[in-house]
Batch of 4 targets.
Target 1
Amino acid sequence: MQERLLIVDDEQGMRNLLSIMLRKQGYLVHLAGSGEEALKKLSNDVYDLIISDISMPGIDGIGVLRRVQELVPEVPTIIITAYASTESAIEALKLGAYDYIVKPFDVEEFKIIISNALERKRLERENQYLRKELHDQYSFEGFVGKSQKMKEIFSLVERVSGTNSTIFVSGESGTGKELIARAIHYNSQRKEKPFVSINCGALPDPLLESELFGHMKGSFTGAVTAKKGLFEVADGGTLFLDEIGETSPAMQIKLLRVLQERKIRRVGGTEEFEIDVRVIVATNQDLEALVEQRKFREDLFYRINVIQIEMPPLRDKTEDIPDLVRHFLDKYNQQVGKKVEGFTQEVVDCLLRYHWPGNVRELENTIERAVALETSSNIQMESISENIRKNGKGKTEFPASLPSSGVNLEVHLEGLRARFMLEALDRVNGVQSRAAELLGMSFRSFRYFAKKYNIFGDPAIRADL
C-alpha cells in the first residue's frame, strides 16, 4: 500500500518541487498551501507523514504541529526551516516533531529523513500490534482449561498481578510455569516494560553471575566490553528465574542479597545500582525438601516463597485435555496451512488414557506431530507416536464405587456416553435414528454428541441424514 504524505507550504514552487520528488519515490502526495488548509485536510483524511514549512502567514508550522499532536500524535511531522529560524525548529522538536531540515536542503538527505520517519511509524505500529497480541495471548480469557484446579489458579493469578510481590511457581516440567509468569507480567502495571527470563540451571556460576548482574570491561578473560545484566535489562519490568533450585549455594547468597536490598553490582565493579524489578521464580524440584537436605538456603526460600502458585500435572486435570487438544489443533492447522477437522474416537480415548509425563508440553508436541503427518480430515492413530499408542491402550475403566482418591466424573461420563453410542450404532448397522431410540435420546441430541465425539470420522459408520 502506498504511503500518503501531506506537504504544507505557502510557496507553490516548493510544493511542486517536493511533490515531483516524492511521487517519483512512490508516495501518494497531497498538497496544502496554508496551515488552515492543512488542518482542514487533517480533519477529513488520513496521512502517514506530514511535511510542513515552519514560516507561513496565518497558522504557521508550529500551529500545524500542535494540532497534529492533538489529533494524530502517532503521525510523524518533519519541519522545513530557513537557517535564521533554527530556534523555532528546535522548539518544534520539543513539541514532538520527528526532525527538521534547513533550506536549502540536500535532496538525498531529505529522502533518507522521510524514509526513516516512515520506518519508525511502521515499527511503532508493529509494536502496538505485538503488545496487543501479547495482551490477548496472556489475558485470563485466553487461558485454556476449565478444571477446578485451573480456575483456582487463574483466580489467584488475577489477584496477584496487581501486586509487586515475589511469586514462586512450582510444578513438574511442561506444566506451563513460564506461561503463568508471563500472564502475571502482561496483566500487571509493568506490562509496558520488559519481561526477561533465564534458565538458572543452564549456565555455570560465573556465566550466570555475569548474565544476571552484568560485568565491567576486563573483569574476566573475554570481557572486552562492559555489559548490562538481566536485572538491569528488566528494570521496571519482570525477571523470571526458571529452575532456581539448580543454583549453587554461592549464587543463592547473591540472589538473596539482591532481593533484600534491591541493588546490584556488576562483576568487577564497585558501583551499586538500584533496581525496580518484580521477580518471579520457578522450579520443578521440591524446594522444601532441598532446604531440609541443606541444598537450598532456608532464608532464600522464605524470601521467594511470598506467594506460591502450584501448577498441577496434566494427569490430575484430564478434563482439560479436550479443550487443550482443540486449541493445539487450531494452532498447528494455522501454522502449517492444513484443515484437519478433528480426531477419531480411538485417538480421543487414547489421549485421555495416556498418563502424560511431559504434561501440556508433551501434549502440544503430540498434536503438532499429528497435524504434520495426517493426510486425512481427522487425526488417525497412525499419526500418534508409538509410545503414546502403546501406553494409551485398553478400555477406560469405570469404577463400580467411588474410589478413595476420587474420580473425574465428567471424563468418565463422556467416555461412557461415547462408548454406548458406538455400540448402539454397531447394533443397528449405523442408523442414527434407531441408535438414538435404543439410548432414549432425541435424534437431535444424538446428532449433537456424534459430532462432538467425531463418531462419523469412522467411514464404516453410516449417517442417515
Target 2
Amino acid sequence: MAPGTRAGAAHPVMLTGTPDEILKKKIENDTAAGLRTLTDRRGRNTAMAQKAVLESQSFTEQEALREHLIELVASSDADLLGKLDGREVRRFDGHSVKLALGGARVIDYVPTLRQSMQTALSDPNLALAFTLLGVLGIYLEFTSPGLILPGVAGAVLLVLGLSSLSVLPLNWSGVILLLLAVALFILEAKIASHGILGGGGVVSMVLGSLLLVDSPVPELRIHLSTALLLTLPFAAITAFLVTLVVRARLRPPATGGETFAGSEAVTLTALSPEGKVLFRGDIWNARAARNIPANSPVRITSRHGLELMVE
C-alpha cells in the first residue's frame, strides 16, 4: 500500500433491490470464503481480512502492515520496485520465484486517439444523443430536400450512435418506445392532431430513453436530464409544425372561388338580370337580383359554377 491510504470496508452491497436475510447471509459467506482462498495461499492474516467483509472494518496502511494483511508500504513506483527486488514469491502452484527488478523501468501507456474516442462513445448518454440527433438531421433532410448539411451530419451521428449502443446492454422495450416516438413525431407533421401525436411522442421518447439501457450500474443508465434535453428538439419542431398547420387553417383562403365573395367587378353589359361582368381581367357570366346598367361597379356575393352572383 501507499502511505496515507486505506483498505477494507468490503461488506457486499446490492446495487438494486434489498435481499432477504438468507440471500444476504449467502452473499456474505461466499465473499468471505473467496477472500480466505487468497489469504490462506498468501500466508496473510485470514481472521483480520474476514472482518473487512463481515464487519466492514477498514485499515490504514500501517495497521494493515502490522496485522500482516500486506507485506510492505511503498511511496512510489521506484520505491516499490526497489523493495521488491530480490524478494522471493511463492506462486499458487507451489514453486517459488525470486524477483529481479533492479533497474526496471515503468512505462506509462497513453490511450491512442482511437481508444480515447471509443471510451467517450461508450457513454450511453452520448450514444443516445448521437442517435437521436442523427435521426433528427435525416428527418430534416427528407422534409427539406437540398439542405445537404443536416443529412450528412445526421448520417454520421446516427452511425456513431448505433455503433456505441451496440456494445451496451439494451432493453428492447426502450428501443420500441424510441421507434414509436419517432413515428409519432413524423405522423404529427403529416396529420393535424393538434399536438396529441406530438405529446405522445414526447412521453414515449422520455420513457424509452430511461429504459433503453438495461444495467444495474447507475453510470451505464440514461440520465433523466439527458432524456429531457434530447426530447426538446423533437418537441420544438413538432410544436412549430403544429403551429403552422393551425395558422394555415385559420387563414382566409387566398385562391379559389372562396376568395370571390366581397370582391368588386364591373358590368360589361346590362344585367337584366343576367349579363357579363369583368372581374380580374376575365369576363364572367353574372346574375343580379335586379336590373343593373352596363359599366356599373358591382360586388360579388357568391359563385355558382361559372356564374357570379352580384349586387
Target 3
Amino acid sequence: MNQEIWTIGELARTFGITTRAIRFYEHEGLLHPERDGQTRIYRPRDRVRLKLILRGKRLGFSLSESRELINMYSPDADNRDQLEALLDKIDDRRRQLEQQKRDIAAMESELNEVEQRCRDALAERA
C-alpha cells in the first residue's frame, strides 16, 4: 500500500481489526489522526504506530509497555535506549513464557496422576 493517508475503515481492514479497536488506541493517546469534520485521517506515522501496537500485543506486551517503547522512538536519534528497553521486555516476556511452560507441565503431571487414581479406583470397583 503506497498511500499517504488512510481512513479508519481502511486501517481496520488492512490490519484485520475493528474500527472500535482503533478508536480505543486513539482514546489511549497512541494514535493521533487528523480530523476533517467527523472523518479521521490517519497518516503513515499512525499506521506504523498501529502496526507496532498490534505486534506488541501478539508478543504479549501490555498496552502500557507498547506505549513506553513506541514513545521512546525519535526519528533524529539512534534509538539505542528504545532497542535496549525492547530487549529487556523480550527477556522478561521469555522468562514469563518459560514459567508458564513449567506451570503447564506441572499441571499436566498432576492431571495425569489424578486421572490414574480415578481409573485405578474404577478398576477396583469393577
Target 4
Amino acid sequence: MALLITDECINCDVCEPECPNAAISMGLEIYQIDPARCTECVGHFDEPQCVQVCPVACIPINPEHVESNDSLWSKYRRLQAEAATAASSTSA
C-alpha cells in the first residue's frame, strides 16, 4: 500500500527528508508520494516515517495503490537493487 498526502498538507517540509525511498517530492501545490517508490517504510522502519512526523495527520493509505506486505517487500528489494546498481555505476 502506498501512502497519499492529502490536500490538508501544510507544506511544513518535515516528511520529505524522512522518506528512506525518496518517494516524497514537492508537487504543484503540496507534497506528493510516488506510489512506485513508497513501501510504507517496509525494510527500513516498523512505521511509515512520514506519518510519524506529520503534524496534521494528512498521510493515509492510498486506496488506489493497495498492496500486500509481500509486494511491499518485493518493491523494497527492487529499490535496493536499483540503488546498488546506480551506486556501482557512479563509482566505476
